[in-house]
Amino acid sequence: MFENVGHVLYHVLIILFPILFYYQFLNKGALVLTKKINYRFLFIMLVMVICTMSFPIEVTEGSNYDQKLIPVILSFLYGGLVTGAIVVVSMLYYLYIIGDSNIMVMVINYFILSAILLIFRNRYSSLSLNKKVSIVSFLFLLITSTRAIRLFYLNEEKEIFLNVLVSIITWISLVTAIMIIENLNMQMQLQHELQRSEKLKVVSELAASVAHEVRNPMTSTRGFLQLMSQDDNLNGSQKRYIDISIEELDRAQSIIQDYLSLAKPNKLGMDRINVSKELEQVVQLMSTYTTLNNTSIRHEIEDELYIKANKDEMKQVLINLIKNGIEAIDKDGTVTVKASSRRGMVLIEVMDDGVGMTPQQVERLGTPFYSTKDKGTGIGLTISFQIIELLQGKIEVTSEVGKGSIFTIKLPMETSENS
Q1: Which regions span the lipid bilayer (predicted)?
Q2: Which residue range(s) make up the domain with 123?
Q3: Is the pLDDT of residue 384 over 80?
């Protein structure tokens, strides 16, 4: 074994190099678990598993070492069910081609491993890095223990030490791969947030310098149009044109006010508010709007959920998200509003069964000037993101084309002791 240290390091390189190559040349964003197949990541995992199996290290006579377990685990945890299944089937088929004598044992073992990974993967993405490493390490310890027990019952005690040594090297490689993926994901997310902050800064400066100057002549123009509309000499068409002009000026005023709100976020008026009560009022307010749009709204709101926020701004966020959900539905759809508490956080979910969005559209949400609506500016959602960030919270969006979207607001819960 010790004579093959160079070959062992080569296998470590087989695991780590494809991951770095993927992030450097193939990846277009943070590696996030979705229902759709990430074909670039799948390709990298297949290359990884084939390379490590094609060049095994002979530990003892008739006993080879490779790290095919690592791409299998990574495929399920970061690629999803389909990606993991493809990698496992490809690996087993490759074993069959090269004539592995333990093919049936491998099928059973990896079937059990796949089932365990499927149980973990749903919660995996929401865990911290330390918890992710701990769970994967525990799973790997379980696999190593079963191997050692099998060798013990086969009276191959001499190979137990080598099995443990090989497993330690594989575990180090696996943990290193996970830490690289997580850290690169974090860097990409931070880079995305930095770019978004720079855009917000530019828009804020633009709003602060232009909005006031534009609003003053618009106010004067609106006033003169109102005076003109009162002239009895105007015919019906002329009055209608003036009314349309006033409506468009009002719409422009509303957009400018949004820009001013973006330029000067309100950090004052932060109180301990019952968001359950505010949410129920907003749902009741928006029920009229749902009727006009041939949709319905239902809610499941837990009582006595408190946060520290500006009441008016929080209402603005809730109205904006619910209104967007209603407008995303063509007809006969439902917007569902849920509110609950979990681990010291208040979770508010706004779900619709509307047209949905592509991953690219979801990625651009909250960016100034971007909107999925024909007449939208995107400023309303940008302000909503900014308000929630000001409250030390965040808005998470999941969506699928043709099935709808879910906007989840996560905010720190305010207890009576902290008020």
Answers
A1: 7-25, 37-57, 69-97, 103-121, 133-154, 160-181
A2: 2-194
A3: yes
Residue 66 has pLDDT above 60, yes or no: yes
Between the ranges 60-74, 189-203, 331-345, where is the mean pLDDT highest? 331-345
Residue 419 lies in a domain: no
Q: Per-residue pLDDT averaged across 285-313, rounded? A: 86
- State how beta strands 394-400 and 404-412 pair: antiparallel
Residues 36 and 124 in one domain: yes
**Predicted local confidence at residue 419, as pLDDT:** 42
pLDDT the model gives residue 261: 62
Residue 407 lies in a domain: yes
Task: Please state the rounded mean pLDDT for residues 305-316.
Answer: 87
Average confidence score pLDDT of the chain:
82
Annotate the chain with three-state secondary structure. CHHHHHHHHHHHHHHHHHHHHHHHHHCCCCCCCCCCCCHHHHHHHHHHHHHHHHCCEEEECCEEECCCHHHHHHHHHHHCHHHHHHHHHHHHHHHHHCCCCCHHHHHHHHHHHHHHHHHHHHHHCCCCHHHHHHHHHHHHHHHHHHHHHHHHHCCCHHHHHHHHHHHHHHHHHHHHHHHHHHHHHHHHHHHHHHHHHHHHHHHHHHHHHHHHHHHHHHHHHHHHHHHHHCCCCCCHHHHHHHHHHHHHHHHHHHHHHHHHHHHCCCCCCCEEEEHHHHHHHHHHHHHHHHHHCCCEEEEEECCCCEEEECHHHHHHHHHHHHHHHHHCCCCCCEEEEEEEEECCEEEEEEEECCCCCCHHHHHHCCCCCCCCCCCCCCHHHHHHHHHHHHCCCEEEEEEECCCEEEEEEEEECCCCCCC
What average pLDDT does the segment 318-340 reach? 89
Task: Calculate ∠ Cα 150-151-152, nearest 5°.
Answer: 90
Q: What is the CATH number of the domain that holds 309?
A: 3.30.565.10
Residue 394 pLDDT > 60 = yes
The phi and psi torsions of 281 (rounded to 5 degrees) equal -65, -40
